[in-house]
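## Example record

The block below lists the input lines for one assembly entry, exactly as stored, with component labels intact.
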Amino acid sequence: MEMKITPIGIIHSPFREKDECPIQPTYSKNASGSIEVFSEYEQGLRDVDTFSHIYIFYLFDKAGEIKLVRPTFLDDNPHGIFASRHPCRPNGIGISVVSLISRCDNILEIKGIDVLDNTPLIDIKPYIPRFDVFSKASNGWVGSKNWRPKPQGRE
Amino acid sequence: MEMKITPIGIIHSPFREKDECPIQPTYSKNASGSIEVFSEYEQGLRDVDTFSHIYIFYLFDKAGEIKLVRPTFLDDNPHGIFASRHPCRPNGIGISVVSLISRCDNILEIKGIDVLDNTPLIDIKPYIPRFDVFSKASNGWVGSKNWRPKPQGRE
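Predicted structure tokens for the full assembly:
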């Protein structure tokens, strides 16, 4: 079974090049951006502004070669792609949790964005702490890694 | 720009019919299941078992008609599809956070599963509290809704 994914909008961010993108939204809390939902989907946004945070789903449309095991931004040791958030993965779909600042018709103003400008948006779902917060979850191999600048040239 | 999504595995769960599926994993903490990752992707699982929780991404392959505004499991009042987790959405992709109990080769034993048996898996990403916990996020319109049994016949 295959499924065809078609963008429902575009994400606008301050990041024009991969090297400028933060590793995760947590490291770009103040980066502002906006989401333009195509007008034919605008109705689907009803009540989205009752939430302070949303998941955005998008395509890694600029990702390079898919590798199942590779070093990541946070570690020079290789890890499996399903143990990382690396963009070069089978079915290149990314998610980020961002703050929803305001909505005007089909435009959402957001903060804490970490994706490239003009990234294709494919879905929005509400972030609901009642369902989504697992404070006691482990940080896995990432737990022992400190934040660092993104290694140059690393996809 | 379009993207073709191809399953990388199959999710096995105790739920054979839509009516049996819990509303969210939070309400099925003890439901056990397993994930069978197709052997050609097994390498990508390296180190996934250092995490206690993972996001699983899957296709809503049994979803019915897409509507941009509709009542949901938790509320008879209609909400926009992007303000809900309802399966009948443009680009029918779902996510759940589940506990990862163990891994044996290409099989992951999991708990807290809320999807139909044989749902096509399309991605796994680690759940990392450092990146994913936003305790102060609002619960939006869902905040005032109590859990209830799924209304009969509601998709």
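Chain B has one domain: 9-144. Chain B touches chain A through 68 residues (CB under 8 Å).
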